[in-house]
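lol ok so funny story. i was supposed to be doing the assay writeup but got distracted and ended up predicting the structure for this chain instead. priorities right. anyway since i did it might as well share w the group, maybe its usefull for someone
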Amino acid sequence: MALLTSYYLPGLHVEDHSIDVPLDWRGTEPERAAAEGLPAGECIKLFYRIICAPENVGRDLPLLVFYQGGPGGQGPRLLSPTSDGWVEEAVKHFRIILPDQRGTGRSSHVSRHSLAARGRGRDQAEFLKRFLARSIVRDFEYLRLTKFGGRAWTTLGQSYGGFLTLTYLSFYPEGVAASFTCGGIPHVPASAREVYAHTFPRMLAKTRAYYERYPEDAVRVAAIADRLAAGDVCLPNGSPLTARRLQALGSGLGMKPAPERLHNLFDTAFGEDDGSSSSMDGQLTDGFLMAALQNLSTAGNPLYWTLQEFIYADGTLEQPIRWAAAHEYASRPEFSADTRPLMLTGEACFPWTFEDDPLLAPFKPAVDLLMEDTEFDSIYDAKQLAANEVPLQAAVYHDDLYVDRDLSLDTLSRIGHSHAWVTNEFEHDGLHGSTVFRHIFQEALNRGDLERALQA
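and the output, tada:
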C-alpha cells in the first residue's frame, strides 16, 4: 500500500494510504484481482486512513472498517477520539480503517469537471453508475484482501453505510467477522417509491413539531417564502433562492439539534425583526442568504443528491425510478410551495434541485437518463442474507426521518443472525454521540458475537 504520510492527532495515531482500483469492476471480482492483478482498463484512487490509539502503534489489533453515510460522503475528518463519538470506544478495541468511498474526499473525486471529461449523455450516466454500492464494496473487499492479508474485519455502517453493509454481507460474507449498523437498514427488496411514501409523512410531522416548538418561525418562514415569490432573490453565488429551494433547508430535520439550528438560521432573516408581520416585509439579510447557501451548497459532495434515488436501484428494475421523491411531493398538496405554513422537505432530491444549483446543473442530463434506466448492478442477495451467519447488530431509531423503522425491522426479520436495538432516545445521527456504539458493542459482546471479531 502507498503510505502517503503518518502523524499524530490529539489521542490518535494516523496513517494515510491509497491504492488503485478499477473504475469498472464488471467482468472481474476482488478475489481474482487480488490473485492475478488488476484487470486492464482505467483505474481510480481509493484513499483511506488507519487510526489507532498512540499506545497501540505497532500492535496487531483487530480491524474495524467504517462505512460512511451518504451517498457520496467522505470518511470522517477527526480532531480527536471524542470528535466523533463512536471512535472513542472503538479505538479501545480496534485498529480503525476510514476509507473515502470512491468519488469522494481524497479518493478520485467526482465533480462537475470530472463528469464533463466523460463526454455527454449516456457516457456520463454509465460513469455515475460506477459509484454505487456494488462498486464501493468491491473496492473494500479488494482492499481487505490485498492490504490487510485477507483478515476478516468488523464493519460499522452509518446510514447509507448500513446499506453497504448488507451489500457486503450479500456477496462477501467471508470477509466479515461481525457487523454493526446505525440508522442504516434498508428495505429489501428496495424501492425508491416505497421509501418516499413512508418518509414524506415524517417530513410533515417533523416540520410541524419544529413549528410547535418555535411558533414564530412558522410566521417567519412563511414571510421568507412570500418574499421569494417575486422571483428576484439570489444567493451570494448568483443562484436563485425559491420557495421550493427554501423547503430543502429541512433536510437536516432528522438530526439533533436540527430545530435549534433552523431557528438560529431563520432568526436574522430580516433586519430589524421585532416579530411583527410588518417587520418582515423588507429585504432578506446578506447574513441569512450566506447561511442558506452554506446549508444548500453541494460543493463538497455533489454525489449526495446525484445518487440519492439510485441507491435503491437493485439489478433489473420493473420500472424506472422517474424522480420518486418528486412524484410523492406532487401527490401531497400540503407540501406545495404556495401552502402556509410552508412544509420543509427532508432527504429528497427533485428535478429543480439540479436546475437551481449551478454546481449540480451539469449533472442533470445524466441524472435524467438514469431516472429512465432499468439496468443497475445487483446490490442485495436475499437468499444469502437469509442464510447469513455473520453477527449483525443494528441500532434502529424509532423516529428516524430518513430510514423507516418498520421497513428496517421487516428486513432484519429476514436476515440470519441479526439483532435490533430499537430506541427513541436518538435521531438519525445518534452514532456521533458517545452512547450508541458503546451500547451495541456491549450487546454483541454479551451475546458472544464478537469472539471471532476480537481475535481476527
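The chain has a mean pLDDT of 96. Residues 192-213 form the longest helix (22 residues).
back to the writeup now i swear
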